[in-house]
Amino acid sequence: MNNKRKLSLTQLVNLSFGFFGVQIAYSLQSANISRIFATLGADPHQLSFFWILPPLMGMLVQPLIGKWSDRTWCRLGRRKPYLLVGAIVAVLVMVLLPNAGSLHFSTRFFLGLNAAMWFGLFSLIFLDTSINVAMQPFKMMVGDMVNEEQKTRAYSIQSFLCNAGSLVGYLLPIAFTWIGIANEAPEGVIPDSVRVSFYVGAAILILCVLYTFFRVKEMPPKEYAEFHGINLEKQEEAPKEGLLKLLVKAPRTFWTVGLVQFFCWAAFLYMWTYSNGAIAANCWGIDPNAPGMTASSAYQAAGNWVGVVFAVQAVGSILWALVIPKFRSISLSYVVSLLAGALGFASIILVHNQYLLFVSYFLIGFAWAAMLALPFTLVTNALEGNPYMGSYLGLFNCTICLPQIIAAATGGLVMSLVGGSQAMMLLVAGIFLVAGALCVRFIDTKKQ
pTM higher than 0.90, yes or no? Predict the structure, then answer.
């Protein structure tokens, strides 16, 4: 393994640079979806239901992208064609989504949702589908082109770029507000600060993806086989495995890391869903559940502050991503990171000063850095030499999507159990991270 060629720092950065732009789009979505749908008139107890769509699309799309790209060998590359198509569609939808409120349709004609919310829902479906199509190839290209010795570093660089993109995406709305773009709008209409943020994010996304597309050259089949020790003749003679069969044959590492993933991603789904309401209640002193409150300047100001604290989380994640490779044990770094994040979540319910939230979300960033880098390091190492790497990584994405779907579907019920408080939902998120840290001990790091 150590005899395999190593990539330079520049090559490792080029491999993941487009992730910077993709993550700007993803962070704009994660920081503003609850705000957008609350502005369009969604009931606070229904907010988590809107979050079912993004992970559901990821769960459907990413295994297929992995399977198809495993079999794609063309002049443009193996994974890159999917990267480019996903980015183009994402750009188009990012221009449409924030204009949902401008339709001025208020009639609730199906499932209690008005036309603007339905337009937003379909836009969200296409946006998250395209983001997933664009995001997955980056994870696969690291698995394809980086040796085992460099993988932790490669995924840490990807984590760094991911969080740098998050930092930009989270701060765009408040930055545009500071320069005079309106942060308030008529009831049911998305403020211009959010709309312009999506437009600028779309432009950065396509530029970054094009950079990676033209700067990275994927391995041809023969070189790929030599790099991973695959016998092409035997592979061609072997029967093609379906996704279900691959899932049955998945190494134990796949399942044990997936157990940790379940608690981690459920926790972050609650953060994305309820941070806006929690911060509005604790730091601005308003009741986010009250009718018409989402159109208030206080609620929109809290919405901007969500972007700021999410940016602080990204800074914490960027810095912690530099520390993670220095741990001698991956398992130890995983546990420490998740427990720090749990402490950050639990502290939010005690904080009533908007600036003290920086400490809470900075600690949450430690958990986020580990979630981006360590699971894929563990799984790709366990799958080294497996010809179905892309398919397995697509299936592994279900360990990200499924917990979010379950958390979103049960969010309203859990919120009722904690007294209807959106801030208490973040305490529940902290408890989930503690459970995830406890499950790290079950991870099997042996190769398949």
Answer: no
**pLDDT tens per residue, range 10-41:** 999 999 999 999 999 988 988 888 788 877 77
Question: Token digits for 268?
Answer: 């972050």
Alpha-carbon torsion, ordered 25, 33, 393, 70, to 10 deg:
-60
DSSP state of 73: -
Q: pLDDT digit string (tens) for 150-196?
A: 887 888 788 788 888 988 998 899 899 999 998 887 777 888 999 99
Residues 40, 23, 422, 125: is their CA dihedral positive or negative?
Answer: positive
pLDDT at 2 over 50: no
CB atoms under 10 Å from CB of 48, counted, come to 25
Please state, in angstroms and rounded to a whole number, the distance separating the CA atoms of residues 2 and 330.
Answer: 19
Q: How far apart are CA 344 and CA 337, in angstroms?
A: 11
Percent of the chain scored above 70 by pLDDT?
Answer: 90
Distance of alpha carbon 34 from alpha carbon 15, whole angstroms: 32
Distance CA 375, CA 155 (A): 10
* CB neighbour class for 313 (10 Å; exposed up to 12, middle 13-18, buried from 19): buried
Distances in whole angstroms, Cα of residue 382 to Cα of each of 71, 143, 229, 238: 21, 11, 14, 21
What phi and psi values does residue 75 have, to the nearest 5 degrees? -60, -30
Tell me which residue of 65, 137, 123 sits closest to 92, measured CA to CA: 123
Which of 41, 207, 227 minimizes the C-alpha distance to 116?
41
The half-sphere exposure of 206 on its side-chain side, counting CA atoms within 13 A, is 14
DSSP state of 77: B
H-run or E-run covering 396: helix 389-396
63 Cβ partners below 8 Å, 6+ apart?
243, 391, 394, 395, 397, 398
Q: pLDDT tens for residues 331-377?
A: 999 999 999 999 999 999 999 999 999 999 999 999 999 998 889 88
Largest CA distance in the chain: 67
Q: Which domains does the chain have, with CATH numbers?
A: 9-442 (1.20.1250.20)
What's the rounded Cα separation, in Å, for the pair 402 and 127? 18
Give the orientation angle of helix 357-382 with respect to helix 330-348, to 10 degrees. 150
| CA separation for the pair 100, 118 (Å, rounded) | 9
For residue 53, give the amino acid letter. L
Lowest mean per-residue pLDDT among 65-79, 285-299, 317-331, 416-430: 285-299
Q: Supply 160's token pair.
A: 């760094």
